[in-house]
Specification:
Blueprint: E1 2-8, H1 10-22, E2 28-33, E3 40-48, H2 53-63, E4 66-71, E5 86-91, E6 93-99
Antiparallel strand pairs: 1-3, 1-6, 2-3, 4-5
Helix pairs in contact: 1-2
């Protein structure tokens, strides 16, 4: 059994949640904040049997798309008031796959 912790942008969260539900993969959805751009994210905690890890990853990959976005440097660098906005890649998903010793539901 594995836990997948998938961090996605809010723009992709509904698509990921819908895709997981269609695949009958349960998930807990949490609001989170990223460190680099200091913007909100959505974190999904997903527990699946080992045989379903690839299926869950495919659903996440299919529904969390990368995109480019202009960001003011002051949003991520202190004292950057006179800097020019930068084009950065955002979106997609960051997924951690962790072993689960026990899964208990009361």
């Amino acid at each position: 059994m594995k836990m997948l912790m998938a961090i996605v942008q809010p723009k992709d969260a509904t698509k990921v949640q819908t895709g997981l539900a269609k695949a009958k993969i349960g998930a807990t959805k949490l609001q989170s904040t990223g460190g680099f751009l200091r913007e909100g994210n959505t974190t999904f905690m997903i527990v699946v049997d080992d045989e379903r890890v690839d299926e869950a990853l495919a659903v996440i990959k299919e529904n969390a798309q990368t995109r480019e976005q202009f960001v003011a440097p002051s949003a991520y660098i202190d004292n950057a008031a006179n800097s020019v906005p930068m084009n950065v890649q955002v979106g997609g998903a960051t997924v951690f796959v962790l072993p689960v010793d026990q899964f208990i539901h009361f």
